Amino acid sequence: MITYVSVGLLGLLALSIPVGIVLFLLGFGVDTFFSPFPLTKGLGNLVWSTSNNATLIAIPFFVLLGEILVRSGIATRTYTALDRWVSWLPGGLVHANVATATMFSATSGSSVATAATVATVAMPQAEKLGYDPKLFSGAIAAGGTLGIMIPPSINLIVYGFLTQSSIPQLFLAGLLPGILLALGFMAITVLICAVRPELGGTRRVFPIGEMLRALIQLIPIILLFTVIIGTIYKGWATPTEAAAVGVAGAIVIAAIFGGISVSMIAESVVGTVKITSMIMLVVIGASFLNFTLASAGIGRELSEFLDGLGLSPLATIAVVVCIYIVLGFFIETLSLMVVTIPIIVPLIVAQGYDVIWFGILMIVLIEMALITPPVGLNLYVVQGARKSGTLSEVMLGTIPYVIAMMVMVLALIAFPQIALWLPAALQ
């Protein structure tokens, strides 16, 4: 059955069938060929119970929040302000790409939205200032992945929903690794541009007065992050309620900065509906597939297979990491999460590992999948914003940042407290 699901998944995706539909088709196949029960009779109830969950309401709110920030021009002003502060480093404006992605991640919750925003704002500067197109675009694609690590994160919300674990705890656990990963991206950029200065374009130093005035442009993002995350950790609001407050705050900020209009709100709502519909189709399809797989006994099969290998807990983690790296080449990231979590997480927890820690480890692996071909979504988003050059340039540019992610994976395995310290400290 495992072979059927794996081959079927890859085969149907190769036919360019939408991922959500693929998951439903696989579920029907498992029900027909491997289950002794007519599981499709419970499909209606399953769809309703999956979609009728208060936790998932946070997803459209966070998507709408990101849409408003992009379309109101707040993201552009944030990029300009950070340019004033980090362009003196070796690599110059490349650091602004990473820094803007980090700050935008603190309100967006979506890696693709983060990459698209930074790419749209930054790409016009690349040729003008003489940056290497590979390094410049690779940094944007990699920085965009921080959108699913730094809270609030849509992927962490989905992980918490599927594993019934604390979303505030997951948000706290993702904060330090996300910041360390951003600093790692900047450090590896400095190293590359110190060895090959011609790749980093022109380093610019701005007057201190101009730098201080630029901080005003960062206040909206900082305020939104403080309100959203602060209300969750103080217990004043659930993630869903905090997301709604964040949307209201984004509208107020857009109005203050003169970026609000009826057409902007309408475009933001339409964009939110499209993205949320795609996410929910994948989540519901994966829930049905997981239901049929569990009923047909795939969890038992996988457990018996791993037990038969006689692996230690550390070796089990190593195998799981390798599985996610390989699957990340071929499967879209959200789909990869929702398909594997109900199968993999119980096995990991049975080995004595913390479910919160594994969620962060999984997110780093999912981030890698976003910038590794052939299905790395951020690669295509950045290439689309470039409007010139080849996709292979973006792929080559992400290699140093993939290495940084692998270092983070090893660090999380060797030092779990990187993820667990902050939740424990603030509990």
TrEMBL record:
UniProt KW keywords: Cell inner membrane, Cell membrane, Membrane, Transmembrane, Transmembrane helix, Transport
Membrane-spanning residues: 7-30, 50-70, 135-158, 170-195, 215-236, 242-266, 278-298, 310-327, 334-350, 356-382, 394-422
InterPro entries: DctM, TRAP_DctM
Alphabetical list of Pfam families matching this protein: DctM
Keyword hit for Zinc: no
Topology of the protein relative to the lipid bilayer: Multi-pass membrane protein
UniProt KW Transmembrane helix keyword: yes
Localisation: Cell inner membrane
Domain TRAP C4-dicarboxylate transport system permease DctM subunit as annotated: residue spans: 8-418
Cellular component, GO, one term: plasma membrane
MF (Gene Ontology): transmembrane transporter activity
Protein role: Part of the tripartite ATP-independent periplasmic (TRAP) transport system.
Subunit: The complex comprises the extracytoplasmic solute receptor protein and the two transmembrane proteins.
Family: Belongs to the TRAP transporter large permease family.
Name by which UniProt lists this protein: TRAP transporter large permease protein
Naturally occurring in which organism (per UniProt): Palleronia caenipelagi
